[in-house]
Amino acid sequence: MLLSVYHLTEYFYPDEARDSFNELWLYPVDDHRQGLLEFRLSITPESMPRSRQDYFHNRVYDFHVTRPHKQLRIEMQAKVVTFAVPKPSSVPVQVLSSLESRFFEFLAPTPRIPLHHNWLELLEVRRPKPSEDLHGYLLEVTEHLNRILSYNTQATQVDTPLIQFVEGRAGVCQDYAQAMLAVLRSVGIPARYVSGYLATGVGSEGSHAWVEAFVPGSGWCGYDPTNNSTITEQYVKKAHGRDYDDCPPLKGLRRGGGKESLNVLVKVESLQTPLTRS
Fold first, then answer.
1. Of 72, 99, 199, 269, which sees the most CB atoms within 10 A?
2. What pLDDT score was predicted for residue 10?
3. Helix 173-186 crosses helix 134-148 at what angle (to 10 degrees)?
4. How does DSSP assign the chain, residue by residue?
5. What span, in angstroms and rounded, lies between the C-alpha atoms of 199 and 231?
6. Where is the Transglutaminase-like domain (predicted)?
7. What pLDDT shows up at residue 273?
8. All domains in the chain, ordered by first residue
9. What is the pLDDT of residue 277?
10. Which backbone phi and psi does 71 adopt, to 5 degrees?
11. What spatial distance separates the first Cα and last Cα of the chain, rounded to whole Å?
12. How far from the centroid of its chain's Cα atoms is residue 219's Cα?
């Protein structure tokens, strides 16, 4: 599937801001599941971004706006072709026990995903049997969380603690993904947070988030509890990490400016696939 992605972020300040240092996780991944065909980044006031790879091998752009400004505008445009992926291999859950040291960082607690709570009890999720199919269990958890949780953009903020979301049972894709990460890490399944975009479905109006779990023989496989779906050609991945803090769309610091206001616009559209014969 050929998809175009447009992501606009605008900050407005009542007073002049200066020395604005920022990092962007907006560059779509180029891998076996998707190919990046075009990418354009525009920053106003004009600034020359520098790209680098972070610890998790995500492409990150850094920029510094030195001049005084009352508005910061960041536009990203991309064209991505996505591909269908085969069903994950059928392997028992118990094969993961020998991989704990390899994937420790995707099993360990983080400030956003603490593991001292009994997430299985709080979310009414059963512990998997050692001999059962790993992919089947991941589908079950995906469906279960989708059924017991409600999507509500007014229920949580970006810094709402996970326990508050779980107790309230309502939030957005970021919350769904981190709740699933808490469950999977609690039962020894390596899992990571993914940020990206969705062409159609719940959460397609902005940046989207889902989970990738490691399935031996298949690698990292995507699951979206917000939409009760595996990752299809409708999804565009930007980055992954332990939780939201490792790959937010943007984060930065500035001097002055006062209390900001924010405007975000995301559009993902399906184009004619380049593989279609006329």
1. 72
2. 96
3. 140
4. -EEEEEEEEEEEEEEEEEEEEEEE------SSSEEEEEEEEEEES----EEEE-TT--EEEEEEE-S-EEEEEEEEEEEEEE---PPPP--BGGGGGGGTTTTGGGTS--SSS-SSS-HHHHTT-PPPPTTSBHHHHHHHHHHHHHHH-EE-TTT--TT--HHHHHHHTEE-HHHHHHHHHHHHHHTT--EEEEEEEESSSTTTTS-EEEEEEEETTTEEEEEETTTTEE--TTEEEEEEESSGGGS-SEEEEEEE--S-EEEEEEEEEEE--TT---
5. 12
6. 165-227
7. 56
8. 2-83+248-271 (2.60.40.2250), 93-245 (3.10.620.30)
9. 47
10. -145, 140
11. 16
12. 18
pLDDT beneath 70: ranges in the chain: 273-278
- Amino acid occupying residue 46: E
Q: What is the pLDDT of residue 278?
A: 43
The two tokens of residue 219 are: 């690698």
| Contact assessment for residue 152 and residue 169, using Cβ atoms and an 8 Å cutoff | no
